[in-house]
Amino acid sequence: MTATDARTLPIGAAFDRMPFSRRHVLIALALFIAFVIESWEQLALVYVSGDLGPAFGIDEAGVGIVLSAVAFGMIPGVLVWGPLADRIGRKPTAFWSLLAYGVIALASAFAPNLATLVALRVASGLALAGVYTITFPFFLELLPTRHRGRAAVYLSIGWPIGMLAAIAASVTLGDLGWHVVVIASAAAGLWAFAIRAWVPESPYWLAARGRQDEARAVLRELGSPDAEATFTVASASARAGNPMDLLRGRLARITVLMLALNFVFNWGYWGLQTWLPTLLQAKGLSLSASLGFAALSALMMIPGYVSASLLTGRFGRKKVFLFYVVAAVLGGLWFATASSLTGLYLGNFVLSFFSLGAWGVWNTWNGEFYPTALRGTGYSWATASQLVATTVAPSAVGALLAHATGFTATMLVINAFMVATALLAMPLPETEGRELE
């Protein structure tokens, strides 16, 4: 080893001159499909939920319980898996979580009664929470610094792809019953083996655990010209995965803002998506037309992500996020007050384009606030806050509709949560171009 090779560097510096290589493309594919699966699982049964009522003799309230069960299980699940990922590593967390999800999902397809189905759906949520929590932090810790924002936003496109897959399943498999859709979900759990084969452990995590040789080996695989250095990690002495450390020192303010923002942002998004077919039918669209509308909305999300990806490297996370959220609010107002079918489509397309572009930036930005020893834990708290909103929002919007609040008033309430999102983002620090700690 030469004197130059013997340098001591912060681990983040090893990513500054790293090129974006073919290995990164393979990693991106593996984690992209994982995110598609996560989206699919949360939405697949929504579009075939009409089959659940006759199958189990339950009303809409019972169907709602089945649909919410996965999210309910994921709330405690993410709070367990996030700290675990900081302690045992990103890779084993993603692998065992996704594999366990597949096994439990398969069992739920053969549930003999409602109680068993709900219990198994909760358990599958507990399992899926691991890969759901760690996908973005894991990806961020493998990317070159200058490509981190753009590539991670592209990963977010997995959400509308999963949504489109769920809609397609409802059209092609729906007549065969909800069981078939769930079995397809279970088969997706086999993707865990692709993650194990294609995605290396995070060099940040390895260096923080003192596993320098393994960190160097991964960095060589990723093409870092600084792979032979000795690496230091700012948070190496911190207690890995300790949730209370999120509320200490400079992290406390970030944590409070982050939790509030995740709740209101997801409330606004999920409150709309869950009830979009119902809201559209209230405006005179048939069920099939409503599904087509939702599919077109999902397609509009993709250019929203792409545009946000192109802009975040140039203007930074914060400016792009704020602009997209404000534009989504304006799209929401257009959608809420539309007096024609054309206005309804255009307003929702603007809303979908900008709100999901903002989500792409947020998924990246949200994973960059914390040091390595707490990144999984911090992201798990963020995810838990989102999931609480995912659980609460459908019931809250349903209550608004049940009390005859009406389409426009309901949409304006949903839109108010987007306004709160922008306000909460303003004090957060910019992270574009900064090395991860």
Automatic annotation (TrEMBL):
* Cross-referenced SUPFAM superfamilies: MFS general substrate transporter
- The answer to whether UniProt assigns keyword Membrane to this entry is yes
Question: How does the record say this protein sits in the membrane?
Answer: Multi-pass membrane protein
Which positions fall inside the Major facilitator superfamily (MFS) profile domain? 27-433
Chief subcellular location equals membrane
**Which residues span the membrane?**
25-49, 61-81, 93-112, 118-140, 152-171, 177-199, 251-270, 290-308, 320-338, 344-365, 377-401, 407-428
Which InterPro entries does the annotation name? MFS, MFS_dom, MFS_trans_sf
The record's section on PROSITE patterns has: MFS
Compartments annotated for it: namely: Cell membrane
Q: Does the keyword Chaperone apply?
A: no
One Pfam entry name? MFS_1
Annotated keywords:
Membrane, Transmembrane, Transmembrane helix
Q: Which residues form the signal peptide?
A: none
> Cross-referenced CDD domains, in alphabetical order?
MFS_SV2_like
Identify this protein by name.
Answer: MFS transporter
Q: Which organism is it from?
A: Nonomuraea spiralis
